[in-house]
Design brief:
four-stranded mixed β-sheet; 2,3-Dihydroxybiphenyl 1,2-Dioxygenase, domain 1; 2 domains; alpha/beta
Length: 150
């Protein structure tokens, strides 16, 4: 078992959110479900791509904020595009690869190419990549590469 597990507090739609996340990612598991006194889902543990999460139907007291986000490493533009569109549907698209899903949870949909280009030994090239990324909502790998190659 993971030593540190993100704990996600939902209003009363944790089961719906878990099912949505499990439909978005390919490698998923529902590890456990526990009902509350009313017979509805109270807590659940699930995995997305090997990462375990704990979910609670805790009511409306607390909301998600941008102070924490789930960072997703993407290997291709197709993966960025698919996750961006699916996770932001009903939510909000932000800047620099950030979005909020329909449950208010923040995600960063980031291609691994961004880190590779920004860690270039040439600080001028890396700086151009950073400036290009700062102008984007969804990250565009080809545009990053063009900025690097200028």
């Amino acid at each position: 078992m993971q030593k540190i597990i993100p704990f996600l507090w939902f209003d009363n739609n944790a089961e719906e959110a878990i099912n949505f996340y499990r439909s978005v990612f390919k490698d998923t598991k529902l590890l456990s479900k526990n009902a509350g006194p009313d017979g509805k889902l109270l807590t659940a543990m699930f995995q997305l791509e090997g990462q375990t999460f704990y979910a609670l139907n805790g009511g409306p007291r607390f909301k998600f904020t941008e102070a924490i986000s789930l960072f997703v490493n993407c290997e291709s533009q197709a993966e960025v595009d698919e996750l961006w569109e699916t996770l932001s549907a009903g939510g909000a698209q932000g800047h620099c690869g950030w979005l909020k899903d329909k449950y208010g949870l923040s995600w960063q949909i980031i291609p691994t190419a961004l880190g590779q280009l920004m860690s270039a030994p040439d600080p001028v090239k890396a700086g151009r990549v950073m400036q290009a990324m700062l102008q984007m909502t969804k990250i565009d790998i080809q545009a990053l590469q063009r900025a690097y190659d200028q």
